[in-house]
Amino acid sequence: MSQKKIALINDITGFGRCSVAVMAPVISAMKIQAVAVPTAILSTHTQFPKYFFDDYTSKMRDYIQTYKDLDMSFDAIATGFLGSEEQVDIVIDFIKTFKKNGVFTLVDPVMGDYGRLYETYTPSLCEKMRALVHYADLLTPNLTELCSLTGSDYRDGKLSPAEIENMCKTLAEQGPEHIVVTGIHYSSKQIMNFVYSRGEEPKIVMADRIGGDRSGTGDVISAVIAGMYLNGHDFYESVKKAAEFASKCIEYCVQNNVPEHWGLSVEMYLRDLIED
Ligand code: PXL
């Protein structure tokens, strides 16, 4: 059987373990080939006081054209941080070209956190991200992103499971069959992931809350979910594995005083992702 491939449409950041830098090794450990489609190149991620940032939008079409000319195919497409409305258009075109039968798209609508959108997320870019939801099979928003995508009030994160379920239902009607709302601060000790699959009762995946929030955690989680799902596991199992793996890496970081903006030390546990 030939190896599967995932196209990772995301930024390439040298230091800080986010996006492709952390997703590719995770996916490779799961015996899947990771193919980078860069949206930007950074020296470190944007949580550092200084970083080099090279927007790749103007080059993306030519880059992708070679894959079209070569009749390349992918088994899954995963998208992450997108910097402009034009990039969303390029991503939608990519999905329209490469999402053949049996291919799934995971959209991580990286837009903000703690009830606030990132500075780059203008109202028109938010609107555009809503358009991208229609092309997602799997969607991995945090609570801030869920509220933004559904036009709901964040209310300091104090939303009931019924309200979260309703928002997921609204989004699922637009395209995604499976949604996980990640990193909900449930208590001082626990993080809740709310798993919604169309037509099923929602499920909860709890994880211990260890230390503060770490850069790149969402990227690690969506990479594990994409890889597990592509390897034939159901969505809930995929989310469970992702939460367990992230928690283990975070615990290592806390014990070894790895600074929060250095990302997750996935290198220590990649072996946990290998399946026979
Ligand atoms: O992990 C999200 C992310 C992705 N890409 C870049 C970032 C961040 C978060 O800060 O700065 C460049």
- State the end-to-end CA separation: 14 Å
> What structural class is derived from the secondary structure elements?
alpha/beta
Instruction: Give the CATH level 1 class.
Output: Alpha Beta
Strand order within the widest sheet? 3-2-1-4-5-8-9-10-11
Low-confidence stretches: none
Distinct small molecules bound, one entry per kind: 3-hydroxy-5-(hydroxymethyl)-2-methylisonicotinaldehyde
Tally of helical runs: 8
Q: What is the number of domains? A: 1
Mean pLDDT: 95
Shape: globular
Q: Biggest sheet, in brief?
A: 9 strands, mixed
Q: Compute the number of strand runs.
A: 11
- CATH homology superfamily name: Ribokinase
Could you give the topology of this structure?
Elements: E1 5-15, H1 20-29, E2 33-44, E3 53-55, H2 57-69, E4 76-79, H3 85-98, E5 104-107, E6 112-113, E7 116-117, H4 123-133, E8 138-139, H5 143-150, H6 161-172, E9 178-185, E10 190-197, E11 203-208, H7 217-230, H8 235-255
Parallel strand pairs: 1-2, 1-4, 4-5, 5-8, 8-9
Antiparallel strand pairs: 2-3, 6-7, 9-10, 10-11
Helix pairs in contact: 1-7, 2-3, 3-4, 5-6, 7-8
The structure holds 3-hydroxy-5-(hydroxymethyl)-2-methylisonicotinaldehyde.
Write structural notes for this entry.
The strands form two sheets. Strands 3-2-1-4-5-8-9-10-11 form a nine-stranded mixed sheet, with helices on both faces. A two-stranded antiparallel sheet has the order 6-7. The protein is about 35% helix and about 20% strand. The chain contains eight helices and eleven strands. With about 280 residues, the chain is an alpha/beta fold. It has helices at about 20-30, 55-70, 85-100, 125-135, 145-150, 160-170, 215-230, 235-255, and strands at about 5-15, 35-45, 55, 75-80, 105, 110-115, 115, 140, 180-185, 190-195, 205-210. Helix 1 (about 20-30) runs parallel beside helix 7, helix 5 crosses helix 6 (about 160-170) and helix 7 (about 215-230) packs antiparallel against helix 8. Bound molecules: 3-hydroxy-5-(hydroxymethyl)-2-methylisonicotinaldehyde. 3-hydroxy-5-(hydroxymethyl)-2-methylisonicotinaldehyde binds near residues 47 and 218.
